[in-house]
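From the methods appendix. Each design record in this collection lists the tokenized structure first, followed by the designed amino acid sequence. Records were kept in a plain field format so they could be parsed without special tools. The example shown here is representative of the layout used throughout.

RECORD:
FOLD TOKENS (251 positions):
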């Protein structure tokens, strides 16, 4: 037997658009029990909540936009509304928490939960209005369709360029230490230097990244794989220092 508060909590999670599986895993209550509680409720007409309008926090939105373009997607709910999903590797638990906090800054009061999968977790939030905030949403893979920011999105990126870069790097980027050897005065010496990479198959998303780097005065080069554009590299010492100062490491 479950008390009233436990039942209300489980049903509230379902009302956010959560699946019975995810609510069952989080609460420990069987799907059958939750379904039976739903069946006892008097059905109410479905009414979409009003569109809350622009993002509540432009700085947070610039970061979330970068995460979404890198490792995010929007998928329709089976009945109505949409899920925003951001994939985060298990190696970066701090990134998962930051993603959750960022979503609630963009849409205060909205439900956010994490679905664990093998090797990664998906930070997920339900709303009927996600496509309005991310009009790049569409069928198919991002690299197979046009990705262009709306003017209002570009205004936010122009106002908060480093947050946008942070989101892209935290989703599809990394910082590594490269090394090379040179022969000086007959002696072979090894040199190490840091380098930042951004990897994305979409030419449009890579261009959004490099256009923003240009505005920030960051020097970059494009690397290829099997003759195809693939990576954007930042290796100049001054540019890497700026990236370290404003982007920081994944955690």
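DESIGN:
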């Amino acid at each position: 037997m479950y008390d009233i508060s436990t039942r209300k909590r489980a049903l509230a999670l379902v009302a956010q658009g959560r699946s019975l599986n995810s609510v069952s895993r989080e609460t420990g209550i069987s799907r059958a029990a939750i379904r039976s509680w739903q069946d006892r409720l008097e059905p109410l007409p479905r009414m979409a909540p009003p569109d809350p309008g622009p993002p509540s926090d432009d700085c947070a939105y610039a970061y979330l936009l970068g995460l979404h373009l890198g490792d995010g997607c929007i998928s329709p709910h089976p009945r109505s509304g949409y899920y925003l999903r951001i994939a985060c590797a298990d190696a970066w638990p701090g990134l998962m928490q930051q993603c959750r906090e960022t979503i609630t800054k963009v849409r205060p009061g909205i439900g956010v939960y994490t679905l664990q999968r093998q090797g990664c977790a998906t930070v997920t939030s339900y709303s009927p209005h996600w496509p309005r905030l991310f009009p790049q949403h569409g069928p198919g893979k991002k690299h197979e369709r046009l990705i262009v920011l709306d003017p209002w999105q570009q205004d936010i990126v122009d106002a908060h360029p480093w947050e946008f870069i942070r989101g892209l790097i935290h989703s599809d980027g990394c910082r590594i230490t490269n090394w090379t050897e040179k022969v000086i005065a007959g002696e072979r010496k090894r040199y190490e230097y840091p380098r930042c990479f951004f990897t994305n198959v979409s030419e449009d998303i890579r261009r959004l990244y490099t256009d923003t780097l240009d505005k920030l005065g960051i020097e970059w080069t494009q690397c290829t794989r099997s003759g195809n554009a693939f990576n954007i590299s930042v290796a100049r010492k001054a540019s890497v220092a700026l990236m370290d100062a404003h982007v920081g490491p994944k955690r």
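APPENDIX NOTE: The mean pLDDT is 89.
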